[in-house]
Every structure is written in C-alpha cells, then in structure tokens.
C-alpha cells in the first residue's frame, strides 16, 4: 500500500497519525442491528399500549436502549486491521480481524492499525559523501507492522518516526561512503540501509522488508569531470592494449624471421604467396619476366650467402 505524504521541511515526508475510531465511517451490521432492536422496542411498546401489559413497556424500553448501544459496542475489523482496545485507559486487548464487542463508555478503541505492507519515501538533499561531494539521494522503504500492541503503545506516530529514521540513516550511509561506491554498488547500499533502519525500528513493532535507492544525483560540473576522467581512462587503456598488440606482433615477426633463416624454401613460398594475395584482392594480373622471377628468388640468394659465409670461415 502506498501512502501519500505532503512535502515537509528539509526533505521530510509528513504522514497522518493512526486512524481514530470515529473516522472509519459507518458500521453496517451495527446500524442494521440498531434498526432491528429499535423497531422491536417500538412494536413492544405499541403492543403494551394496546393490551395494557406494563411488562412490554419495560421490554420495549430495554430493546430501544440496546439498539442505541449497538453502534457503540459492535465493531468490525477488516482482514488487514487490528484494533487496540483500552479499558479505563489500560490495554484490554488487540482485536481483529472480524467482529468483536466492547463495553460502551468503559472500553475505547484507541487506534486502528493497518498491517499491510506500506511504503515511505525519503531523501537526503545536499548530503556530503566521504570524499566531500554533495549528492542528492532518493530512496523508498517498504515496511510492515508485525506487533500491533508495541506499534500503538511504544511510539506516538510510527509513520513520521520511520520517515525521520530512514532519512537519518541515509545521511549517515552517504557520509561514510565514497561517491564511486554509492554509484557502483547500490545493492550493497540497499542492504546496509535496510539493516540500519530495521535495527532502529525493531522496538516499535515494525518490520523493514526492503529499502531501494531510486536515484543518486550529482552536480552537473562533477558529471562533466567524471565523464572526462572516464574517457581519459578508456583512452589510456586503449593505448596500452595497442602497445601490447604491437609487442606481440613484433615477437611473431622475430619468430618468423628465424624460421625463414633456417628454411630458404619457406621464404620463397611466402614471397610467392604475397604476390598471389595481391592479385586476388585487387583483381589484377601481374606479368614478370623470367629473369625477374629468378632475381626474386630469395631462397637461392640465402643459399649463396650461406655458402660464402662457410668459405670465409675456412
């Protein structure tokens, strides 16, 4: 169930107090019972007037009196409601759901408590993070009354108290966290907030189901600075990756050169493959004289160079 709150001071949300007995509207069964008893009483008095039997006067008066007391004694609590009944100012019982009776004048239904899941919105405006950055944080807490007696007797207005406790806990969490942590790990922030609010509201009979941080706002100037920083970090990472790729390519070239030095035929085949790849990609035809082909025979050149080196060594 979502509650509507009017805006308050410093981001606080104001909530109405617990619903009093007089504001719950009419009680249909009690009104029907009152009408029946009053009609029976009137009929009894009319019968006494016709027959002259005084006993029916007393019976009629008693029925009318009970009919008047019916709306004051017969109460109905909905499935999700609990009624706090006080007898002469002391707790008598917690009633509901369903029909229950109270003693008029002596008993009083002090409060009707709603035990459905409810929500409270709260925020922290211009709260300083651990690294002294002003941020605006909006959140919502989902809570439920699990002990109607404590919620009615231990605190005056639990709705307003939950709102204030939630905002205080949110400011404490923002002040103890870095901005980067708040932005990158909201789930952890939700858990910390739920545990802190639940600890503070446990004595009031309130159970905190969950807390969700909806939005974290940072100043526009800081957003631009963070964007430039992130861009610079990505560019630096890209340059590092490019340098690593160049280093790996150079290593592969060194390994390939060693292989070609040991196998002149492999180098010749590689040269022929380069010519083939060039003609395939561009769709051109290359004509070479046979003397030029022989001149491009790196394998033979390497063999001659090796033989010359052997002779020089001898």
Helix-and-strand structural type = alpha+beta
Most strands sheet = 3 strands, antiparallel
Succession of helices and strands: EEHHEEEEEEEHHHHEHHHH
Using only C-alpha atoms, the radius of gyration works out to 44 Å
Q: Considering the protein shown, what is the CATH homologous superfamily of the largest domain?
A: Band 7 domain
- Mean pLDDT across residues: 78
Q: Could you describe the 3D structure shown?
A:
The chain has 314 residues and is an alpha+beta fold. The chain has four domains: 19-114, no CATH class; 118-218, Tetrahydropterin Synthase, Chain A, CATH 3.30.479; 230-262; 263-314, no CATH class. Helices cover 55% and strands 22% of the residues. The protein has ten helices and ten strands. The strands form four sheets. Strands 5-4-7 form a three-stranded antiparallel β-sheet. Strands 8-9-10 form a three-stranded antiparallel β-sheet. Helix 1 packs antiparallel against helix 2 and helix 8 (264-282) runs antiparallel to helix 10.
Topology (elements, then pairings):
Layout: E1 6-7, E2 13-14, H1 28-51, H2 54-73, E3 74-77, E4 81-87, E5 90-95, E6 98-101, E7 107-114, E8 118-128, E9 134-145, H3 148-153, H4 158-175, H5 179-184, H6 186-201, E10 206-217, H7 220-262, H8 264-282, H9 290-295, H10 298-313
Antiparallel strand pairs: 1-2, 3-6, 4-5, 4-7, 8-9, 9-10
């Amino acid at each position: 169930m979502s509650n509507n709150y009017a805006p308050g001071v410093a981001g606080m949300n104001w909530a109405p107090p617990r619903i009093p007995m007089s504001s719950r509207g009419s009680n249909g069964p009690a009104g029907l019972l009152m009408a029946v008893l009053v009609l029976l009483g009137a009929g009894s008095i009319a019968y006494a007037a016709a027959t002259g039997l005084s006993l029916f006067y007393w019976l009629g008066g008693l029925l009318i009196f009970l009919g008047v007391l019916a709306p004051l004694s017969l109460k109905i609590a909905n499935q999700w409601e609990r009624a706090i009944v006080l007898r002469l100012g002391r707790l008598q019982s917690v009633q509901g759901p369903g029909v229950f009776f109270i003693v008029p004048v002596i008993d009083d239904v002090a409060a009707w408590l709603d035990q459905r899941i409810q929500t409270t919105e709260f925020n922290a405006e211009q709260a300083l993070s651990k690294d002294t950055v002003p941020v605006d944080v909006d959140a919502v807490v989902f809570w439920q009354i699990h002990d109607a007696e404590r919620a009615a007797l231990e605190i005056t207005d639990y709705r307003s108290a939950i709102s204030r406790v939630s905002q205080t806990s949110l400011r404490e969490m923002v002040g103890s966290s870095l901005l980067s942590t708040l932005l990158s790990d909201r789930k952890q922030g939700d858990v910390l907030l739920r545990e802190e609010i639940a600890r503070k509201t446990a004595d009031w009979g309130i159970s905190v189901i969950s807390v969700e941080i909806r939005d974290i706002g940072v100043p526009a100037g800081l957003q631009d600075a963070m964007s430039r920083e992130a861009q610079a970090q990505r560019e630096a990472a890209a340059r590092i990756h490019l340098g690593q790729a160049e280093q790996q390519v150079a290593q592969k070239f060194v390994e390939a050169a060693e292989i070609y030095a040991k196998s002149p035929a492999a180098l010749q085949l590689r040269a022929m493959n380069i010519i083939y790849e060039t003609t395939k990609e561009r769709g051109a035809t290359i004509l070479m004289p046979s003397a030029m082909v022989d001149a491009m025979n790196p394998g033979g050149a390497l063999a001659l160079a090796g033989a010359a080196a052997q002779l020089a060594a001898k």
